[in-house]
Amino acid sequence: MRRGPVRRKRARALLSSLILALLPICRTPAQSVFSVDAALGYNGLFRRGAWTPLQVTVENLGATFQGEIRVAVESLDQPEPRRTIYLRSAELPRNSRKRYPFVVRLDDEYQSVSVSVLQEAGVADHRQVDLAGRGLDEKIVLGLSRAVSLDFLNRLTIDGRTLKAVYPRIDLLPDRWYAYAGVEAVVLHDAPLTELSAEQIAALDGWVSAGGNLVIAGGAHLSRRAAEALGALLPSPVGGLEELDGFGGLIRRFGGAPEEDSVLVVSRCTPPDDALVIGEPDAPLIVRRRRGGGTVAFLAFDFSRPPIYGWSGRESMWRFLLDPPGAVPDEAAASLLDPSDAAAVRSVRQTTTFVFPPFTAALLLLAAYPGALLLVWMVFRKARYRRRLMGCGLLVLTAAAFAAAAGGLLYAPVLAPSTLAVDVSVVQSASNAESSLLDRMLWLFSARETRQTTVIRESKVSLETPGAETTVIRENGSTVLEPVSIGSWKDQRVHLRAVVPVVMEGSARAEGPRLEIRAANTTGQLLRGCLFFHRGAAYYVGDLERGRDLSESFRLDRAVLPNDLDAVLAQTPAEGEAAAGPGRLQRRLLSQVQELSAGLGPQTVLLTGWMDRPIFAVETRGASTETRDLTLLVLRLTAHEEAHALR
Amino acid sequence: MRFAENPLVEEAVTHRIFGGPAAALLAAHLLLLTAVILLSWPRPAPAETLLLGVTPRTYRSALLLAFLSLAFINAFLDTPRLRGRGGYSHGQWLRLSPVGLASFFGGKLTAMLMQTVLLTAVTLPLLTAAAAVSGAGLTDVSMAGAAILLFTFTYRVMGFSLALAFENRPLVLAILDTAILLAVLFGSAAVAPASNPIVVLAGIESEDTLLFQNLLLTGTPASRLLSSWVLHAVLFAVFFVAAVLYGRRARKTQKVYSGAGPRGRAGTGGTTERHSGRHDETSA
């Protein structure tokens, strides 16, 4: 019996089955089972120096995957490349696709952004995001619209910067409020608003609360369901449609000539009492209302259709809509690495109301003035030369008296010491500790030049930097901050703000009914009467000694009299100048921080504390009683879902 | 008060400031300014406007209107039509009177300055009211007042200089006055924008960088004012020197002293006898 052929057959079969078994193993490393796609910013565009959404879509064609998605942002043009890595855990079943939203900070186009899918064995897939030509310096206006209805805004300039209308896909809108940091305004117009997720609406709401500017257009396209989807974001309830003959209210406010026989279809709305209304009382056309630190404007009409479309006052109206009160200068936003800090500044700079005399008083004064001049003229009209000469002097004296009266009547509310107020906020976050003092101070100066920031007349502002290792510009023993002064209410509208190198680090985590806070006082100063604010509630911490780490847990339902700061402040130790208790201005500042905190999301905790040695000393009009040390630290402690680390 | 004894000052007080078209013009100027301020008064009330973040335009409107109005009034005050009936023409003072050149120009400058100061002073209360409700500070008003005074005094000197040369040709005088004033007020915006008085005045309190472009509004308001004052100082010097040269020439070509003109001591700073409107019918 010949056994050779049988053995060879068996050997061939064994070899074939071995090769067949090994084939998939050999194929796996050669062909990826992942497909990664990254949608950057808003339609691929981003605002330089701002937080930007990055939607990473991962498709898994292989077995169930468990790992991480990593986004790495590297600065390439610096001597020491800086790298920020954002990590998210990911789990993808077999043959599935999932979108992972990230919010990354992009300073410019000279950065490298890469998205990687990580598993235990290493990098499963990798994709580079192209930034070339995508960075914008313009103010971005997001238009959620089916049509290209906002392109006319590209011709407009606000604060010396042009606008850029971008139309993102509604499903790619971020679900984090601070992802809108690079956006000037969001305009909702003729978009399928019912497709917005609850998270997306909450993000929009959070952004508005932190100072965003939302414009919602009504008209025929705004369905009842869409209005319901927006919920509390709408500044007023919206009803059915009606036709108006013309739009005189808009023309009176913004100018421009109306078209003949112009019929405007508007959504009926009933504005609340605290809203700014433009239009007729029974037919409001624009309703603008504050929401937290920002504003929401409702246009009762469709701005993309006649007669508004061809109306010559349209640009003026949009300037009004896109330049809301209290907007932080872009320089400020750019100088702060964290959008919540910008929001802090934005909110803190809210100011008081001055009570001016009624219009009739001014009217009487202005009417009496020509009368007085006429009287003097009549008396001296036919007098001899010398008396006429005296009459000339008397005319000038009359004018001077009325100038003093007008000044006394109308400037008194502004210049009275009791109403003089300077809010100084010192803002520092954990993430921007590495920024140089110089840069921040330069921002302050440049902002002053554009008169956006501060003019505090007849006051001295001095700046000291406690325990700072950073370069400080000094001139004759003080900083180059020049004495500035307050002379009118407009000057008081914006307040002095600066960022000083008070380096503090911290984090906060809410777990069930408890809030855990960790913070390290690296200011080199004793912080007195520290308070944490979380969603409008105050938690008293007490003194925080220099170099001491604080790790405390608070029950969220045990806030110390959340609506009564006075009781909280009363717990400040009575020792030293700072311990003498915060003054009226500080109390107001604290209550503003509290308001700000109420408007911010649950992820943000603010810390305030008083330094023993004042950072800012403001002497107002030489009145020693008004001398205050307005020292306040606003620290943002955050725990984002993404692991956010500097490497 | 030696200046009070100057016949030209006396004539200005008697005939120009307290009577004639100048007083009517002043009244019209004040009424117009008051009307503009009341019409542009911020609504809603200033405090609410502040909260809305809208800067009222009351002050800027009033300031620009006051400046333009005073600029034209000052430039045209020496034209024969606005000078009124009383007093003498420049030609009569130069050719027929014994008043010396130094006395003539000194008196004329003093009288013009008095009138410009008066015009500016009576405008200031209205500007103060407008500034207070528009959020402009008192410093802004003071700077604006000083700027208006200096600018409009320059235009007054310009008007006087032209009136001296073209007194007998009112149409040419009006055209020249208008053309030069328009060139200074508006034409300079194209050539030397940083020195343009309107841009500079608006920039004293302006936050609207769009309107005037960043390059026009660099530096502090005071430094911007200074650059415009330099332009006006040059204009002042040019027109005043031209007026003096013309006056000297007119004196040299003086043929006959008829004794019919205003009396006074030639070459002195004052007169010994006061004259009055009795000489109204005197012709050159």
Can you put this structure into words, describing what you see?
The complex is a heterodimer of chains A (647) and B (284). With 647 residues, chain A is α+β, with helices and mostly antiparallel strands. Among the domains of chain A are: 31-135, Immunoglobulin-like; 138-327, 3-Layer(aba) Sandwich (Rossmann fold); 359-419. In chain A, the strands form nine sheets. In chain A, strands 11-12-10-13-14-19-18-17 form an eight-stranded mixed beta sheet. In chain A, strands 25-20-34-31-28-29 form a six-stranded mixed beta sheet. In chain A, strands 8-7-4-5-35 form a five-stranded antiparallel beta sheet, with no helix packed on it. In chain A, strand 11 (157-158) and strand 12 form a beta hairpin. In chain A, helix 7 (339-348) crosses helix 14 (584-599) and helix 8 packs antiparallel against helix 9. The longest helix of chain A has 31 residues, at 385-415. Chain A starts with a helix and ends with a strand. Mean pLDDT of chain A is 66; it is low at 25-31, 325-353, 416-505, 571-585 and 613-647. By secondary structure, chain B is mainly alpha-helical. Chain B has one domain (2-255). Chain B contains twelve helices and no strands. Chain B has helices at 7-17, 20-39, 46-52, 58-76, 80-83, 90-96, 101-134, 138-165, 170-191, 197-205, 209-216, 221-252. In chain B, helix 8 (138-165) runs antiparallel to helix 10 (197-205), helix 8 packs parallel to helix 12 (221-252) and helix 10 (197-205) packs antiparallel against helix 12. The longest helix of chain B has 34 residues, at 101-134. Chain B starts with 6 loop residues before the first helix and ends in a 32-residue tail after the last helix. The chains are: A alpha+beta (647), B mainly alpha (284). Chains A and B meet through strand 11, helix 8, helix 9 and helix 11 of A and helix 1, helix 2, helix 3, helix 7 and helix 8 of B.
List keywords for this structure.
heterodimer, A: 647 residues, alpha+beta, Immunoglobulin-like, Rossmann fold, eight-stranded mixed beta sheet, six-stranded mixed beta sheet, 14 helices, 26% helix, B: 284 residues, mainly alpha, 12 helices, 71% helix, disordered C terminus
